[in-house]
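Priority: low. Protein: UDP-N-acetylmuramoylalanine--D-glutamate ligase. Input follows.
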Amino acid sequence: MKSAEGKKLVVLGAGESGVGAALLAKAKGYEVLVSDGGTLKPIYKEKLEKAGIRFEERTHSMADILAADEVVKSPGIPEKAEVMQAIRAQGIPVISEIDLASRYTKAQSIAITGTNGKTTTTLLTYHLLKEAGFNVGLAGNVGYSFAEQVLADEHDWYVLELSSFQLDDTHDYTPTVAVLLNITPDHLDRYHYSLEEYAQAKLRITRNLDSSCYFIYNADDEVIQREYQSVFVDTNDLPFSLHQRPDVRSAALYRSETQLRLDIPQLLDEPEQVNISNSPLIGQHNRQNLAAAILAARVAGVSVAQIEAALPTFQNADHRLQPVGDIGGVRFINDSKATNVEAAWYALDGVKAPIVWIAGGTDKGNDYTSLQPLAERKVKALICLGVDNAKLRAAFAEKVPHLEETQSVVEAVRRAHELAAPGDVVLLSPACASFDLFKNYEDRGRQFAAAVRELAQEKSPSS
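Result:
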């Protein structure tokens, strides 16, 4: 690694990744300027001041920025921003925080991307390694700076969640294991409304892989299958699938609801079986996330016995099919993160018990047609929680036995409990944004969980 002494580095954006990059760069000898067009959070100001790093907010000093030898761009800044256009015009190299951090660590890493399921898969992979006794760090899009952790560089492994925005400016970073879960249309405004361009951004995760690396990907995803053919990398491909395929030798394949078969000829003399019956994760999409995480952990050296022992203790991120209580045999599940129809479909499909469904919020032009067969088959009552529930009522009034509406999350929880029988599930999976009654989906999920706790206390024999 060439010395950074005296080199000028500008960090654009002073969030978690930007501040982490600045701290690492300063420690390695760069002359650092942090520039943010918005306002810095007090915690980040304090970190920068303590490290003696120059920063500016609500402005970009173009003369200083254009004097940089290199720019680290925070993932949220679009290419069309004026400051980025000026930097590109000047030909200044632009890298990601991930690239910068990878220069200064010899640790191995597992990098995970995909449109859906990234966070669950990243947290599960990290959990499997940590429970097996690995010295492992968690970083990237899950909200922890890779660069700041590399400053101490205490880990042998890192598990990174990477968005397409992070991958866009990643050039030299080489993960030991790269994981691509799926590609569905999202953020297309950043990619000229081209699914192909967005897919290629995701596939950047493979660009530096070689024969010592592994690429785990979803063989059931048609976009990945199509677009990966145009990528030329000499690496160890490990496709996973939910079912037997004549066209693919799957490295991970479900033989039954509870048995995942691992077939990794590069590592194993013969296939292995992993029992996933004790996993708390619900639904078909989580079966894909499980396959990817288990494959990644196995490649990293976690044994089948260690994987099976760790699965039951995994706790997913809040608001993703998260169990939040059981009152008189009625289970309550918080899936507030399901802000679109596709996510709600996975939730309804994944829950096996009869459902009292709480849905609604700010409609984003939703088409509920795909949810109607599931609702007819599985939902015994629908409680619409929103300011304007007309579209939900129109879509489901003829599909469910009982439908009512409320604008109170406390009332929704109480009514759901009254309508449910022991063994049923009350599922908050809104299929809509939250901004009509709540600050965001986290606020909605927290209020739901609090209402469940409050009702549980009321119903408790000791209260």
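Residues 322-458 form a domain with the Protein-Tyrosine Phosphatase; Chain A fold (CATH 3.90.190.20). The mean pLDDT is 92.
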